[in-house]
Amino acid sequence: MGAIRSAATDVSKTIYDFKAFDANYNEISLDKYRGKVVLIVNVASECGLTNTNYNQLKQLYDKYSSRGLAIAAFPCNQFGGQPDLYAKVDVNGPTEHPLYAFLKEQQGGTLGDDIKWNFTKFLVDRNGQVVFQVFLEYAFAATLLLF
């Protein structure tokens, strides 16, 4: 029982068209985020960026959850070693989760089509549309204020 789903072949319009397995391998529809601003992030536990990013995610959640921010964290070990936590997924390549294929298609990064490292974040508006991708944090907090 894995979190890997075959690559998306249809053109999905929003994140609500996707499902993912939670940490207990229950299939969850991302429709649960309808009407919320969602931060989707690939996370890691053994990365030099882990402590800083987990602290930032917690601060963002504490500050903005009352305004409708949800965080969906997907563990990934393609780059080395209290959000909703999903089962481990691939974010690049032939076995990438269809949600990540969609996210990258909707909001190509400045570093190309593949996610380059842990903690790449995709911000999704209240209508399920991908509006922002960021790896570095410099303009991220200001962008959150728009929602």
Automatic annotation (TrEMBL):
Protein name stated in the entry: Glutathione peroxidase
SUPFAM superfamilies reported in the protein's UniProt record: Thioredoxin-like (SSF52833)
Active site residues according to the UniProt entry: C47
Record organism: Gongylonema pulchrum
Thioredoxin domain sequence ranges: 9-147
Pfam families, sorted: GSHPx (PF00255)
GO MF annotation, one: peroxidase activity
An individual GO BP term: response to oxidative stress
Family: Belongs to the glutathione peroxidase family.
Keyword Oxidoreductase among record annotations: yes
InterPro entries associated with the record: Glutathione_peroxidase, GPX_AS, Thioredoxin-like_sf, Thioredoxin_domain
Xref: CDD domains: GSH_Peroxidase
Superkingdom per UniProt: Eukaryota
PROSITE patterns, A to Z: GLUTATHIONE_PEROXID_1, GLUTATHIONE_PEROXID_3, THIOREDOXIN_2
UniProt entry keywords in alphabetical sequence: Oxidoreductase, Peroxidase
